[in-house]
Amino acid sequence: ITLSIMVSGGMVKTLLLLISMLVPPSAQEKFHDEPEADARARYAVIAEAVAGEVGGDMRLARYLLTVAKHESSFTRAVHSGAKKGDALRSWGLFQIMCGRFPISRVPGTKYKAHEIVGVDIAATKRATKAAAVHLKRAIRRCKGVPLCVFRGYGGVSRTYSPKVKARLLARVRTYRRLETKKTHDDKNERDAK
Questions:
Q1: What element of type H or E holds 189?
Q2: What is the pLDDT of residues 151-169, one digit of tens each?
């Protein structure tokens, strides 16, 4: 048990570092009307939820962080559920398309839409688990190729507009940026294989 806590604690620190690479807390205060200290506390909740879901799988962690970055920019308004995307059908940090109603079912899970929004740890864990279900499926189907994974997660068809292609390629660039950030957890993952 002690080893798993140590690994999880190391993973949380690593994820916080990666989140800070994507969105410095000062950007939250400047652009999203959230004090830096509040943003840092919320990022810790996100990192804990992701670490708990991925169980040491840094590849899945990077995919989750990339999706959160591009779907919600880690903003409190989206994380809390105050803002929704896709004509009010996409919910939470990972903007999972569920439907317009709070009681709409989250695809692939036992959750309802209102259960995957909120900045508390329980809601963030549910949102992370829901996003991971879809990402794991896409990773398997696509053999881990980022462009294919992001197309699968976003439900993008084979033919798509230049605007959609640009969004997908931006996600790939973010994922690659996180991938190039070598971490202590990467070494532990390689050693375990």
A1: helix 184-192
A2: 999 877 666 789 989 999 9
